[in-house]
Amino acid sequence: NYALVAIQEMDKEKINTAPNLDAGEEVLAVYNSLGLAVNDIARWLRKNYGIRCQANHPLGGLVNTVPLAVKAGMGWCGCTGLLITPEYGQRQRIAPIFIDAPIFEFTDSDAHRWIEEYCALCHRCQKACPTGAILDHSLIGPEVIPGLGLARTSINRERCYPYFNETLGCSVCVKVCPFSRGNGAYERLKKVLENRK
C-alpha cells in the first residue's frame, strides 16, 4: 500500500559524455548501486524493525517509479516521462521499497508541477534525441494516478530502447535537459518561466 522512494544521482561529468560509453557505464553503475542499496535497506527494515517490505530494483520492476517519486514530492515528470528533481534534473535513477504500513508521514505534493509548463516550451531533449524517439505529444496510458491524472510518456520505446541498449544507456536527453545542470538551475528556470508569464 505504501512506498519509500530512493533516488541516486548520476555523475554530471560522465553523463555529459552521452551517448559515449562513459555515460552508459555510469547509468549501469547507478542502476547497480541503487539496486543494492534498496535491497540492503529492505533487509535492514525487516531485520531490525520487523517491517514487511519488498525492494524494487531501479532497472525494471513492478511499477512505473516516476509517479511514485512525484507523489513523494521529489520532483515532477518531464516531457520525456523521466523524473526532474531540483537537485539533479533528470540525472538520477529511482527505486522504491514497498511497505505494508506507513512508517513516515505520507507525502503528496504538486510543488514542482510548473516543470511541466517549462518542458512544453523547451523541447531541447526532443531536438537532441539521436533516434527521434521523443514525441511532440504525450502518449496517454489507461492508468489514472490520483493527484497526477492519466499516466503518460513521450517516448517511442521501439526507437529508444535499441539505441539505449547499444550505448548502455544513451542519456542524451538527460545530458541536454537544462534542469540537469544542477548548481541552482531549478530556481533559475523557475524564474525564467515566471518572467515569461
Give the percentage of residues in beta strands. Answer: 15-25%
- Terminal Cα span: 39 Å
What oligomeric state do the depicted chains represent? single chain
Overall, the morphology is globular
Note the main sheet: 3 strands, antiparallel
Name the helix and strand elements from N-terminus to C-terminus, one letter apiece: EHHEHEEEHHEEHHH
Task: Outline the low-pLDDT stretches.
Answer: none
Average pLDDT works out at: 90
What is the topology?
Elements: E1 2-9, H1 12-15, H2 21-49, E2 53-55, H3 65-71, E3 76-77, E4 83-84, E5 92-99, H4 114-122, H5 124-128, E6 134-145, E7 149-155, H6 157-166, H7 172-176, H8 185-196
Antiparallel strand pairs: 1-5, 2-5, 3-4, 6-7
Report what the structure shows:
The structure is a single chain. The protein has 197 residues and is of the alpha+beta class. Helices cover 41% and strands 21% of the residues. A 3-stranded antiparallel sheet has the order 1-5-2. A two-stranded antiparallel sheet has the order 3-4. Strands 6-7 form a two-stranded antiparallel ribbon. The longest helix is centred in the N-terminal third of the chain and has 29 residues. The radius of gyration is 17 Å and the shape is globular.
